[in-house]
Amino acid sequence: MKKLVLLIVAPLIFCWTIVSVNSECNLPTNLIKEIQSYEEIATNIINSLTTGKYKGGTYNELAKFVDTFGARVSGTENLENAIDYALALMKQYGLENVHGEEALVPHWVRNEERGEILEPRKANLPVLGLGSSVGTLANGIEAEVVVVKTFDQLKGLNTTIKGKIVVFNEDWITYGTSVAYRSHGASEAARFGAEAVLIRSVTPFSMSTLHTGWQDYEEGVVKIPTACISKEDAQLFQRYQDRGQKIVVRLHLNYTRFEDSKSRNSVGEIQGSTYPDKVVLVSGHIDSWDVGVGAMDDGGGAFISWYALAVLHGLGLRPRRTLRAVLWTAEEPGLVGWAAYNASHYNELDNFTFVMESDEGTFSPLGINYAAGVEGGCIIQEIVKLLAPINATQAVPSTNGVGSDISAWTSSLLPGASLLNENQRYFWFHHSAADTMDVLDPDNLDKSTAVWAVVSYIIADLTDDFPRNRDQPRVKVVN
Amino acid sequence: MKKLVLLIVAPLIFCWTIVSVNSECNLPTNLIKEIQSYEEIATNIINSLTTGKYKGGTYNELAKFVDTFGARVSGTENLENAIDYALALMKQYGLENVHGEEALVPHWVRNEERGEILEPRKANLPVLGLGSSVGTLANGIEAEVVVVKTFDQLKGLNTTIKGKIVVFNEDWITYGTSVAYRSHGASEAARFGAEAVLIRSVTPFSMSTLHTGWQDYEEGVVKIPTACISKEDAQLFQRYQDRGQKIVVRLHLNYTRFEDSKSRNSVGEIQGSTYPDKVVLVSGHIDSWDVGVGAMDDGGGAFISWYALAVLHGLGLRPRRTLRAVLWTAEEPGLVGWAAYNASHYNELDNFTFVMESDEGTFSPLGINYAAGVEGGCIIQEIVKLLAPINATQAVPSTNGVGSDISAWTSSLLPGASLLNENQRYFWFHHSAADTMDVLDPDNLDKSTAVWAVVSYIIADLTDDFPRNRDQPRVKVVN
User: Fold this and answer.
1) Which CDD domains is this protein grouped with (chains A, B) (predicted)?
2) Is B2-106+260-461 CATH 3.90.850.10?
């Protein structure tokens, strides 16, 4: 489980490759007709959210939530209070079987952090520690800086690294590629005797913004402090070094890693009328980083998930199978809430018909990104046609899994989907102080909830189970 | 002078209205031919900057400058050191008559500032004081917050303002419109007994970014502390208030306003071969705010100005009239360097043929924004045709003045121009920690310098003086 968690660290998003949609679907005519028969229901759901009773509801509930709790960090009492609030909210909106499911989660907090450039020019150096980092000794670290752009450059410098602060000024390529410097930079540099590591914030766009995130120490390698700096300061260091100027930095980093503590995945359902044991799962994660308020990552995803069920309940819609909203805890420190859930529900996974997660933004929705095999893809293509009133009719297959928490499930075992949306700016705000309600738009949240509700409802209500065949060897998920 | 300075506070930019370019220019054929005869020279200038010896030079010199000095605040020793460096640089590149001209400038510094939301949820509140603000008493201010979007709303609330902290959550309309809340918010709220004022940062786009700027207390109104907060926090306060939630904030703001001190406008020239007393002036300002490093505002404008002369000198080009680069000091506290220069050169203004300033960004250049009357506009339209190799052929008239320091000159008295460029994102970075070298692009700086060099050289070299007639009553600039 640990290995799995380490391998798939945090959002494995935007990794999908667009492959041509199979235009030669051969779904049975009666299945096509059955899907088409949901048109009126789909339109009712959409209308209730875009012009009716539920218009603005997702945004307003989410705003009240984040304005009340702010950041919701794994291991904190504040997160547990936020979870209590979310559970109460799901009950208030009529969801069934509302409860928390325990998970033991990491608890790492930043106490104080300061950076200063001493040479070639005295200046403040804003730093933001990476999750799980150790701190410096009480009197800090003062050392010369060496800037590298890649791990290969680091290896090339070899013995000259000893005693230095390594700055990784990695280029933004994709999140999946560039995040390696955040995840593994500290241990990679520690092998060569570095004193500390600063990484350029992993983002395609910066306004002197700091973007934190979890990092992993490799076993057997000395643990050195690691933090991010802005893209701008990384580039400044690059220019100093390229001009042959000596760079000296002082760091005071103070963090505490507490014992793991109890948290909960939050669950609410609409129980199935015919097959209550069969589950279509919609999800997002409720925890966030400690900077910003996690409105985008992943307040939006968590709230469209339970609110989709609230809307369906309010419209009197009960599908044949159970619809289950899960608000994962402790996604940020490595999908920890999901791992606990997977362990305790592993023997029931055969009953999981379809799993969905939104953790890549709830900007203007375009449709569905799916990992569901050829036949499953054809079904989704039919379903999203019913989203024409909100122009969210794209069905894009993923060659890997989808979602973050559910990525291990959907990369091999279970068919699933994530929300395809206009999230080109997602990483501008990701894990930074800029992740606030201002990133979100009420109308886009309405439409995102509509996509979520329509797709999950239809899949949960179809006569036949969604096809499990992923056209790939079925790989066992380690539990 | 004071009155003038107060009236035209800081960049009066983006106030121009696009009016249709006069397509019926009736310039004398010999003048058109004379302008066309500069094609080879213009192309040489452009090539030297885009592919030749000077390629990358503007960016590299500017980067060295801002990396060495960082922010350059009016009244500080650091600004004076930066001015010494700039003067030495102009000499090194062969400019003539390089010297500083004294100006008495404001000196306001932030010592410490902290904001905290106490109710309805304890949270840190990042604040950034506005230039010239007084501080709070040593133990700070703790008061209830009232949010208004407009001055009219403030007046409507009247007596309920007493003892409160007023938050101006003004919408972004244009900089010229919205900046009124920054410039005058404190005095407007103080009339009603407010204890302090927080304004929403004046920007169309925020990443939880703080945007400072100068503010003006009205004479006879009690001076209360004033700072900006992020757009996100202003919107948060709006939501709290709209829900009927009580908001309490604590502020500790500590600033010092020192006596005005001596600074200098930095001057370098290529003296005219035929009319050395006649001047074409190119300019930008060398001072900056204390957040960020003023790379964009206005390092770019200052550096394309002197570097344009450096390139012309390097190419052996000496125009008939004198080309003068001026790097204004203390623009940010209200065009103070310009005012001193205007006062000491007021009797020579008849010799100022044409004045140029770039203080609206040096992004991809599009051409010239001018305030030059109908005939002058026709001449500029001919000149910018020579900028076709870099697609900077637009000539857009302004109905007001152009530039910031030179706005009083160009709104009535003198013909002038500013750099038209793709500056849609200018105010994203303006007066914030995000104003760094990363905003700028080496190629765009090369092209901006080329526009500056070509236009100023031709106007300084034409047989006849650039027409002074502004087709408006000539208003005397107060000195």
Assistant:
1) M28_Pgcp_like (cd03883)
2) no
